[in-house]
Amino acid sequence: MLELQGGDWRAALLPGQGAAFATLEHAGRPVLRPLDGQPPIGTKGGAFWMLPWTNRIDGGRFPVGERVYRLPVNETEAGNALHGLSRNAPWVVERAGGGHALLTQRLRHEPFDYAVRLELALAEEGFSLALQLENTGVEACPMGIGWHPWFARLPGSAPRFSATHRMVTDDRSLPLRAEPSAGLDGGSEWLGTDGHYAGWNGRAELRRDDLTVVMEAGGDWAGNLQFYAPAEYPVVCLEPVSHVPDVINRPALAPFGAMRVLAPGERLEGRLRLTIIG
Questions:
Q1: How far apart are CA 64 and CA 60, in angstroms?
Q2: CA 202, CA 204: separation in Å to the nearest integer?
Q3: Is residue 211 within 8 Å of 277, Cβ to Cβ?
Q4: Are 36 and 152 in contact (CB under 8 A)?
Q5: Handedness of CA 75, 79, 85, 88 (dihedral sign)
Q6: With the C-alpha atoms ordered 91, 95, 97, 102, is the resulting torsion angle positive or negative?
Q7: 83-140 residue pLDDT tens
Q8: What are the φ and ψ backbone dihedral angles of 272, each rounded to 5 degrees?
Q9: Nearest in space to 209 (alpha carbons), one of 154, 159, 151
């Protein structure tokens, strides 16, 4: 376990298990729902990385040029390839100390060949991370990045964010079309929601009785947000992502967040900052 502390922030990550967060706290209060010793895959707690794609790919079908690749279908009942490959593989801690760390990962799985660099910083003024994915292969390839935090849903929780559109989905949580949406502004209608929002302005808040978490995202995370709030678990997921789910198979939705085709040596970058009010 990699433990970091800076200011009132404390984090614990599991480099050997996809560099998942086991905990993230501020002044002793849980920001993420802790894993409490449970595995990061299959537990609604902590946080994990989504790459080289985010959310779902229908049937694992991934077309690149004239060839169609088949990705592992790990959401078996729905028949989707879910949340990428990175969380299933270990990361290397290049350096760590106090409130700072640098982790890397290198992975090859057709059609992907990539290197990832993750920098974390915990300080009095906030928690920040920068995730950079580079195509290290010899061919151009569509790729995507995302972060999947399970924020603790405590009494008084209310998410707030602005957007321009929300994806209407089928019973397999795959997008069908975009409809206008202003986002969410508290209330109670969000509980039980699992949806994708486009035209996000990169800022979201989760207000609780004890504190408010403010998220500010930039780079390739500045326009799309996946939101998930299962009624049966005390969590809220505000997931900055670089593309619409399954957009590789749904070109009509590309204007709302396409996967970027990275030439060899090109990169995707997501930046994120969390601050606490209260």
A1: 13
A2: 7
A3: yes
A4: no
A5: positive
A6: negative
A7: 999 999 999 999 999 999 999 999 999 999 999 999 999 999 999 999 999 999 999 9
A8: -145, 145
A9: 154
